Amino acid sequence: MTKTNKKKIPIITRLRNYFIAGVVVLVPIGFTLYLTIFIISISSNLIPKEINPNNYLPFSIPGLEIIISIIFIIIVGGLSLSFIGKRVLIIVNDLFKKIPILRTIYSAIGQMTQSFAPSKNKKKSVVLIEYPRKGVWAVGFATKDNKGEINKKTNKNLVNVFVPTTPNPTSGFLLMIPKKDLIYLDMTFEEASKFIVSAGTSDSSKR
Q: CA-CA distance, 24 to 40, in Å (whole number)?
C-alpha cells in the first residue's frame, strides 16, 4: 500500500489564511455594530432629554431612542396624510419656499425624497446604463423624463438617471441619458438597492 503524501502547509501560510478568514468574518460584524452605534447616537441626540426615558431610568435601554424615533416618524407620517396635516404641510411648504437660500435646498430635497417614496400610481424604474464608458455597466434609477431646457437644447429625449455609489446609496451622480440608451430591468427598487449596497454580492436576478 502506498501512502498518500500530504503537503505540509507552512505555519506562515496557515496564519495568513487564518488572518484573512478572520477579516472576512469580523469586517461585516464590525461594520454592522459601528452603524448600529452610530444610529443610536444620532437618535439619542434627536430626542429631547426631557422625554428620553434613558435619562431618568435607573438603567439604560439600548436602542430605545431608535424605537421612539421610528414611532415619532410613523405618527408624523400618519398625521401628514390627514386633512389637517395636509393643510399644515402646505403652510410649511409655502413658508420654506419663501426663504431665499433655504427654498432651493428644501425644494431639491423634497423632490428627491418624493421620487424615491413608494407610490401606487408610479413604478420606480431600475435601469442599466453604460457608465462611465462603453462596455462598463451600472445600475441606476430613472427618476423623471427631462422636460427642461437641457432636453430642448440637446434636442434629445433625455431621462434623468440617479446612479448611486457603493456602499452608500444616498450619494451618487445625476446623469441625463437618451431614453434609447437605457435598458429597463425587472428588478424592484428594494432589490436594486440591496444589490448596490452589497457591492454586487447579492443576487441581482428577479425572484
A: 25
Q: What is the spatial distance between Cα 193 and Cα 139, in angstroms, rounded to a whole number?
A: 9
Cα 175 from chain centroid (whole Å): 18
Angle at 102 (CA atoms; ends 101, 105), nearest 5 degrees: 100
Degrees, nearest 5: CA angle 173-24-26: 95
Which residues partner with 177 through β-bridges? 159
The dihedrals phi and psi of 167, each to the nearest 5 degrees, come to: -95, 5
Q: How far apart are CA 195 and CA 90, in angstroms?
A: 36
CB 174 within 8 A of CB 160: yes
- The pLDDT averaged over each successive group of 10 residues in the chain (207 residues) is 60 79 72 70 69 72 71 76 79 77 69 57 76 91 87 89 82 89 88 83 62
pLDDT tens digits for range 110-156: 666 655 555 554 555 899 999 988 889 999 999 888 888 888 889 88
Domain locations along the chain: 125-197
Give the chain's count of helices (H) and strands (E): 6, 5
Is the distance from CB of 172 to CB of 162 less than 8 angstroms? yes
Best CATH choice for the domain 125-197 from the list 2.30.30, 3.40.50, 2.50.20, 1.10.1760: 2.30.30
**Predicted local confidence at residue 99, as pLDDT:** 76
> Does the reported pTM lie above 0.70?
no
Quote the distance between the C-alpha of residue 105 and its chain's center. Answer: 19
